[in-house]
Design brief:
Among the domains are: 120 residues, no CATH class; 115 residues, Rossmann fold (3-Layer(aba) Sandwich), CATH 3.40.50. It contains 24 helices and 7 strands. It is globular, with a radius of gyration of 22 Å. InterPro entries: 4Fe4S_Fe-S-bd, 4Fe4S_Fe_S_CS, Cys_rich_dom. This is Fe-S oxidoreductase.
Length: 453
C-alpha cells in the first residue's frame, strides 16, 4: 500500500512485544497504530493534556484507544488504501486536534498526530481535497503570494456579517468567531549587528508564517532580546536557488495538519536547502511559534528527506530553550529589570508540553526580578490551528477552552498579565474573554535593563 509519510521507524515493531494486534494491511503505518497497549491513560481527566476530545465528551469513542481500534478495524476489513475512506475513521478522527499529547503522555507513545496526517492524505487521495482544507492548509502560500488580497478578504469577512454567514454556508468556516487578520506590514528585520558587536556569536532567527505576517512585533522583540544578550542575529531566508526566493520559509505545519503531505514536503525541502550551510556550521536556529519550530524538529522525520533532518533537529530551539541552554552551558547572563506587574497567568501550548519545553519557559521567566506567575493546568485551548474555525467544530473548540483555560482567565484581575506563546492559544483567549495574551519574547524585551533598540 502506498503511504504518504515515511513509517520506516516502525519497521521493527512487532518483532518484540511492542505491539497489540497489527492490522493485516497498512504496513508500517499499521504498526504505528498497533503500539497502543490499552493503558487507557487517554481517559485521564486530571493533569495533562490527553485527550482533549474525551475530556469534553466523556465518550470513550473519542479517546486515543478508540481511534486505534477504529484504524485496526478499517485496516483489517478494508482493501489497501480504500480502508481510509471507512466512515468509522471519519467518526473516530473527527474531534482529534493533533495536540501530540498522546506521544508524550501515553506510555506507548501513540503518535496520533502523524497517524491523522496519513489518514487525511489517504482520504484526500480517494475523495479529493476540500476547498476549505486548501484554504486553511495554504496559509503560507496565500500570505506569501497574495497577502493584500488575503488581508482584504479577511477584513471584509470579519466586518460584514453577511460575508461571514456566506463563508459558513459555502465553505464551512464558522461565522461565530473572527479570522485572524494579517498586519498591514509584514515583519521587516532591523539591520544585523556587526560581528564585533556580538561577542556571543551568530544565530539564525526562523520567523514563521504567523510571526511574519500576523504578529511581527514578536519577531522584532526576539531579535532585540538576542542582540542584547550578545548575539548577531541573521534571519532565515530561502536558498539562492529557491524557486520563490521572496516567499518566507515555512515549516509546512499547516499542510501536515490538513493532510496535504506533498505540499508539506515541498516546504521542508525549502527549509533544508536554506539551512544546508548552517547545518554544516552547526549554527543555532531559533524559532518562536511552538507548533512550527517543533514540527521541524519532529514531523520532518516522517517526510523521508534523509539524514540531514536529524542534523538539523539538533540545532533547532525555541527562544526560551536556547536562552536556558546558553545560560546553563555557556554562562549567558541577561540583565533584566523588575517589571511592575501583578502575578501572571501562563498557558502552555500543547506542543510545548508534549516536548517538555515548559521547563525552559519557567527557567527563563525566573530571570525577571520579582516576577511571579501561575501555570494554568489545562488541556488543549481548543483552537488547534483551523479546528476552532471549522463550523462543525466551533462548539467543541469552545468546550475545550472552557474546561479550565477561559474560566482561569476570567477569574484573574483585569491587570493580570497573560502569557501564551501559541498563536492559536492567544486568539482563543482573546475570542473567549476579550483579553490579550502575550508571547514570552515581548515580556523579555520589556524587562531588558538596557535594550539595544
Amino acid at each position: 500500500m502506498k503511504t504518504f509519510l515515511d513509517w520506516s521507524a516502525y519497521d521493527i515493531y512487532g518483532i518484540g512485544d511492542a505491539h497489540s494486534g497489527i492490522p493485516a494491511t497498512g504496513g508500517n503505518d499499521a504498526k504505528a497504530v498497533a503500539v497502543c497497549m490499552h493503558s487507557r491513560d487517554c481517559r485521564n481527566l486530571g493533569k495533562g493534556v490527553m485527550c482533549p476530545s474525551y475530556r469534553i465528551t466523556g465518550d470513550t469513542a473519542h479517546s486515543t484507544e478508540a481511534r486505534v481500534a477504529a484504524f485496526k478495524a478499517a485496516l483489517n476489513d478494508g482493501s489497501d488504501a480504500a480502508a481510509f475512506a471507512d466512515p468509522r475513521l471519519d467518526a473516530a478522527m473527527d474531534l482529534c486536534v493533533s495536540c501530540k499529547a498522546c506521544k508524550k503522555e501515553c506510555p506507548s507513545a501513540v503518535d496520533m498526530t502523524l497517524i491523522k496526517t496519513e489518514y487525511l492524505a489517504q482520504r484526500h487521495e480517494i475523495k479529493g481535497v476540500p476547498t476549505r482544507t486548501r484554504l486553511f492548509g495554504g496559509v503560507p502560500e496565500w500570505t506569501g503570494r497574495h497577502r493584500r488580497l488575503l488581508r482584504a478578504a479577511i477584513r471584509l469577512r470579519n466586518r460584514w456579517r453577511m460575508a461571514a454567514r456566506m463563508a459558513e454556508k459555502w465553505l464551512g468556516i464558522t461565522a461565530r468567531r473572527p479570522i485572524p487578520e494579517p498586519t498591514a506590514k509584514p515583519f521587516s528585520p532591523a539591520p544585523t549587528l556587526a560581528p564585533e558587536a556580538a561577542p556571543r556569536g551568530e544565530v539564525i532567527l526562523f520567523v514563521d508564517t504567523f510571526c511574519h505576517h500576523f504578529d511581527p512585533e514578536i519577531a522584532e522583540a526576539a531579535q532585540t532580546v538576542l542582540e542584547t544578550a550578545g548575539y548577531r542575529v541573521r534571519m532565515a531566508r530561502p536558498a539562492a536557488t529557491d524557486a520563490e526566493p521572496h516567499r518566507p520559509l515555512c515549516c509546512g505545519r499547516t499542510y501536515l495538519t490538513t493532510g496535504m503531505v506533498e505540499k508539506a514536503r515541498g516546504e521542508a525541502k525549502r527549509v533544508l536547502a536554506a539551512f544546508r550551510d548552517e547545518i554544516a556550521a552547526k549554527t543555532p536556529i531559533i524559532g518562536l511559534e511552538p507548533s512550527c519550530l517543533l514540527s521541524l524538529r519532529d514531523e520532518l522525520y516522517s517526510l523521508g528527506l534523509g539524514p540531514e533532518v536529524g542534523d538539523l533537529g539538533k540545532q533547532l530551539y525555541l527562544l526560551e530553550e536556547f536562552l536556558a541552554r546558553e545560560h546553563q552551558n555557556k554562562g549567558l547572563r541577561l540583565e533584566l529589570k523588575t517589571l511592575d506587574l501583578p502575578k501572571a497567568l501562563l498557558h502552555g501550548h500543547c506542543h510545548q508540553k508534549a516536548f517538555g519545553v515548559m521547563k525552559a519557559t519557567r527557567k527563563v521567566l525566573a530571570w525577571i526580578p520579582g516576577f511571579s506567575y501561575d501555570i494554568v493546568e489545562t488541556s488543549c485551548c481548543g483552537m488547534a490551528g483551523s479546528f476552532g474555525l471549522e463550523a462543525e467544530h466551533y462548539k467543541a473548540s469552545m468546550q475545550m477552552a472552557e474546561l479550565k483555560l477561559l474560566p482561569s482567565v476570567r477569574a484573574a484581575t483585569a491587570d493580570t498579565p497573560l502569557i501564551a506563546n501559541g498563536f492559536s492559544c492567544r486568539h482563543q483567549i482573546e475570542h473567549g474573554t476579550g483579553r490579550k495574551a502575550r508571547h514570552i519574547a515581548l515580556l523579555l524585551r520589556d524587562a531588558l535593563a538596557a535594550p539595544v533598540r
